[in-house]
Amino acid sequence: MNRKKGVIFLSLAIIMILFGLWFSTTNVYKFAKGYFAYNTQPENSQVEEKTKSTKKEIKEDKELYPTRPKIGEEIGELYIPKLKATLPIYHGTDEDELEKGVGHFAESVLPGEKDNSVLSGHRDTVFRKLGEVGEGDSLIVRTSAGEFKYKVNKVRIVDEDDRTVIVPKPRATLTVSTCYPFEYIGSAPERYILVAYLASKTLN
Fold this sequence. Notes:
The chain is of the alpha+beta class. Helix content is 34%, strand content 31%. The protein is elongated and about 115 Å long.
């Protein structure tokens, strides 16, 4: 009789142990599944949102100027609040464009687009007072795409053949260049450079 009770108790113990193992492993699995689902979902969502944002930015840039300008065409105006001056911008930097206003270096991006948009002008005409503009000042470009406000981040004085002025930039940048020194007689040996980053934009 005692032997029979012992067998019963042993069987019940084994059944309870097996049930406990089954219950715990099942819940652990559910917990693990839920935990990983919860923790990976935000990460995946962030990746998806970042991808959507990048695609949106690329699309916006492409749509700024559906039609690219031709050399000699007026593409907008440069407003310099510090000087209270509004200057026309022409696509190209040949003498024909520079005689009429500010020239846009045709191999650079257009104002408002990501990368380096380069503008040039003569120191004795449109940019004769550019030396009064420095770090922290604003440069505003208005084009068919909208209004783009840049803030001068750096002032550089470089040799006339310094090509770093036109190198690509990782962000929307406006580089404004003119001959230097301003009072120099003849062909000036240096360039006065304003490097400005896009601070805000209002699209048309």
